[in-house]
Amino acid sequence: MADTGWEGTLLELRLGAPGHGGFCVARHDGRVVFVRHGLPGELVRARVTEDRGGSFCRAEAVEILEPSPDRIEATCPVSGPGGAGCCDFAFATADAQRELKATVVAEQLRRLADWDTDVIVEPIPPEAGTDRWRTRIRLVVDADGRAGVHRYRSTEVVTDLRCPQAVPGALDGIAESRWTPGAELVIAVDGDGLRHIVELEPTQSGRRTGGDRRDTAARRAAAHGPRRERVLQGSGRAAQYVAGRRWEVAATGFWQPHRGAAQCYSDIVAEWADAGPGALAWDLYSGAGVFAARLAEQVGEDGQVLGIESSKPAVADGVSALRDLPQVDLRAHRVERWLDDQLGEATPQVIVLDPPRAGAGKQVVAAMTACVPARIVHIGCDPAAFARDIGLYRTAGYRPTRLRAFDAFPATHHVECLALLEPIA
């Protein structure tokens, strides 16, 4: 990080609208300043934390001179100025947090999809609070064997685990124990209330504990690559329940971290998909087949649900959970490559997809719309990627007819969006 420009300078700023990423936008001397820990309309004293030149820099509000009426005492003790990058909005009321997210989603849709629409961010039912919702937690271990989370935009580890997000019991005894330096811990509390703790072996880049961000890409690549696992508590196999069906999935695999999210999204998919008996449906990026199960109920034994997922372990877990549904065919493929072979084949009545954070992208959207399904249900966890994909659908002749957004990650800037798309008449 360069030691030039405004870095370290204190600025008095009036904060404007929220931006995508957990900050508010301010301006000073013709430059844009992205300010964390503030709310729209507040007058703050902010310290510039990063200035690499150009049109913008980053800062943290270290003193609130004129607070917003939506400001409360922060519920997270470690995410304030200089702290972790977890709870971006822990100092705002639950209603204000959702309004901030709705503003961001609406702006991304206007800017990237040319779609001007009202957005309401809803709590995940039946809860409306902002704490004790997270059932899956991933921690890093510092050089002294203490577990924690990364400081914001840093590889330094914050070992204070007074986390308001974790469901009760998830972090009991974690801070008091010592773990393998450089390792990561995955903690999952499953649908039966059992806790699983799995230690992932250290990576070479994972042993770094300083603040140098030059190795960020290498560190992330290593962290998501194959790593040996050691189960320290539980079986490492988490029981999960959606719509009365039981899954058993790897504690280190993907599952929605909010304890109510999988059921919530599954119910919406079932409502919007509206697949008829005997129909063909696709579930892309299907994971363990949560949505495929709901589609199978609709198409019946005479229909077919094809689920495509790149993770072979997730597919295996899905096959096991759905073995009583012969109309479901889960396959381990890259979605992009599989779609290349589908043009001219049977036309699906409905496609459901929940792509990774980067979104589906042009290739996938083009291939899906070329098949001319009657309905597409698209789920996205990043407002910008979601909006880009909506714009691609609109260009390809599909229009969004339903939109719902959920506060699936309370106290953070993250938000989950779901859209129903249908061909333009």
Automatic annotation (TrEMBL):
Keyword S-adenosyl-L-methionine: yes
Pfam family, one: tRNA_U5-meth_tr
GO molecular function, one term: rRNA (uridine-C5-)-methyltransferase activity
GO biological process: rRNA base methylation
Gene3D superfamilies noted in UniProt: 2.40.50.1070, Nucleic acid-binding proteins, Vaccinia Virus protein VP39
Positions bound to S-adenosyl-L-methionine: 256, 285, 309, 354
Residue ranges, compositional bias (Basic and acidic residues): 209-218
UniProt keyword annotations, A-Z: Methyltransferase, S-adenosyl-L-methionine, Transferase
This protein's record includes keyword Methyltransferase: yes
Location of the active site: 381 (nucleophile)
Domain called TRAM: residue spans: 4-63
Residue numbers spanned by region Disordered: 202-229
Listed PANTHER family: RNA M5U METHYLTRANSFERASE (PTHR11061), TRNA (URACIL(54)-C(5))-METHYLTRANSFERASE (PTHR11061:SF30)
Family: Belongs to the class I-like SAM-binding methyltransferase superfamily. RNA M5U methyltransferase family.
Protein name in UniProt: tRNA/tmRNA/rRNA uracil-C5-methylase (TrmA/RlmC/RlmD family)
Species of origin: Nocardia pseudobrasiliensis
